[in-house]
Structures are given as structure tokens and as C-alpha cells.
Amino acid sequence: MLGPFVCQDGTHLHLREDGDLQAALTLVLLHCYALDLRVWDPVVERLTARRPVRVVRYDHRGHGGSDPATRGTDLAQLGDDLADLLAHHLPEGPVVLVGHSMGGMAIMAMADRHPELVADRVAGAAFIATSSSNLSMMSLGLPRPLASALLTIERLGMTLLSAVGRENLPCPGAILGPFVRWLAFGTDARPVEVANVTAMARDCRLGNIATLRRTLDEHDCRLALITFDRLPTIVLVGDQDRLTSVRHAAVITQWLPHARLHVLPGAGHMLPCERTATIVDLLARLVDHAIDAWRGAADTESQWPARRTGVRLEPDSTQPGHDEGHPPSRTER
User: Fold this and answer.
1) Domain holding 210: CATH number?
2) DSSP states of 33-50
């Protein structure tokens, strides 16, 4: 089902619902920077065929079919948009939040600004190829000086193209495709996947995403991650991710010691496309655990049903890394 959702400030977000609209739990999928909700198509198709789950996804403001971003749009605003969705479009029942890249950052921003919504409504979370901080230090898998130079050129180019009124990237797919392949995919990406992502990237509106791009480097929501502590949570990353590397994923699990880190060999940044079957399997397990946890907490009449369960997913082989920033000491884990 397609339709708009109107945020509190009047912005219309393009929204889609799939699966069983009467299901006990709703899965909310948030897409990455510069693309749109179509990036979730293969995951939604397979997951809804396996589980009686309601799936809601939408285009962030400034992306896809949603209204343009305003001058002051930042990750905090994306977090507020998600809060509006939970409070007004999905006002009842447990939800599992799934964020890919910037979508995961929007979830963290929502938790930072609206922790009561996480406590009251969220039964589980999945952070896919994303980061909680230090995005200004991306290495792109290159020597640091070269990476810094490329990122500076990218920021300046984005700002310039937006300032001169370019609506879309002035680059044919034949040229943009190989760059997308190198930047966003691992070693075994299929040409059709690269072509689909390239097409979405060419459709993005430069003036809108340039506004958001300037705020990504300031993103630091490590403390907000504690809001998800003891919820059924998974963290996924490809071991060839040039944008949000294993180090970024490991920081998330440092702050969420009950989360499970899944490092996917040979995969890059576009896990919903590259590792669709794996993501569907893990999300199906996460949904089952989240439903059990929510029902168990409801039986005990807990005020915060998701927070108090302490459910942990089955162990999986991981390859944790290290990064700056460590969680504060906690008296209860």
C-alpha cells in the first residue's frame, strides 16, 4: 500500500506498507543516504513471504518521493520524522527498527531526542552498515591523506553543484556505475545490483542531500545507543565496507554489549542488495525474538516491555574491531 505520511511540520513523506497489516509486530525500514525506499525491495519481498509481519518503509525528506529537505534539515530532523511516524502513524503495538547506513543514524538520532519512544514502543533493532560517530574519519579503504583529499573534493563538489542549481548528478551511468561499484559494493556484487543502485543515485536531488551531507560528519550518538541496551539487537557490516567499516560496527557493539555483531565476508556497504538472504534470515530471527520478548514482558506487566527482557540472539561468528570511544561503566548488564 502506497501513501503519504504528514510530519508535524507539514512535510509529506512517501510511505509504503507491505505484508500483513494486522500482524502483531511492525518492522520499520529506514534507507541510506542519497537512495530511497526501493533499496529494501528484495528484502521486503522475501521477508513478507516468510513471516506474517507488517513492513513500513518511507523515503527520508529530500529523498525519493518525499517533500524536499529544508535548509536546516539534519539527522536530528530525520530522527524527529521517525518519532512522528511512531507516535502518529503507528501509535500502537511493538515495532522493530531497521536502519541501513544513514537510516541507522536516524534511528540513533530518534533515540537521542525521544528515548521514551524507544522504551515504550521498540521491541528490537537492527543496525546495518552504519555508524554512531567519527564519520569525518572515513578511510574509504585508502591511505588517510588520499581519503581526506577525496572526501574534501566530494564535499566541495556537492556544495558547488547544489549552488549552481543542478537537480541531479551530471554523470552518465556508464561513468558513475564503476565508481558506485568500487565505493559501495564488495567483491562479488552482481551487475544488476550495481545498476539498480546507480540508477537510484542518479535520481537523487542534489540540493536536498547536500544539506544533509554537511551534518553527517557531526553525527555522534554513542550515548543514545544505551537506550537500546537489553533489547534484541543485531549489528551487521561487510568486511569490505569502505564507508562504515567494521571499526564503526564494533563501536556500536561496545556500547550495546548484548547486541550481536555479524561481519559478512566479501560484502561492502550495500548489504540489503548484496546479502539479501542473510539479512532476511537474521531479521526473521530478530522478529521472532522481539515478539517473544515483548509478550514475556507484557505478562509481567512491565512498564517498559522491551527494555527489561535482556534477550540475546544466538551466538554467531564475529570479527570485532576497535575504535575511539568506549562505553561508560555500568553497574548492570
Assistant:
1) 3.40.50.1820
2) TT--GGGGHHHHHHHHHH
- Check if the beta carbon of residue 264 is closer than 8 Å to that of residue 278: yes
Render pLDDT for 233-247 as a digit per residue (tens, 0 to 9). 999 999 999 999 999
Q: Let me know: does 21 contact 54? Beta carbons within 8 Å.
A: yes
User: Which cell goes with 175?
Assistant: 561513468
To the nearest 10 degrees (0 to 180), the angle between helices 75-84 and 206-216 is 110
pLDDT attached to residue 211: 75
CB 130 within 8 A of CB 105: yes
What distance in Å separates the CA atoms of residue 273 and residue 53, rounded to the nearest whole number?
Answer: 21
Q: CA-CA distance, 17 to 313, in Å (whole number)?
A: 27
Number of structural domains the chain divides into: 1
- The secondary structure of 232-299 as a DSSP string is -EEEEEETT-SSS-HHHHHHHHHH-TTSEEEEETT--S-HHHHTHHHHHHHHHHHHHHHHHHHHHHHH
The domain in which residue 309 lies consists of 1-333
Contact in structure between 267 and 186 (CB atoms under 8 Å): yes
Assess contact for 305 and 94: CB atoms under 8 A: yes
pLDDT band at 178 (very low <50, low <70, confident <90, very high): very high
166: CB partners within 8 A, 6+ apart: 206
- Please state, in angstroms and rounded to a whole number, the distance separating the CA atoms of residues 23 and 135: 37
pLDDT of residue 328: 39
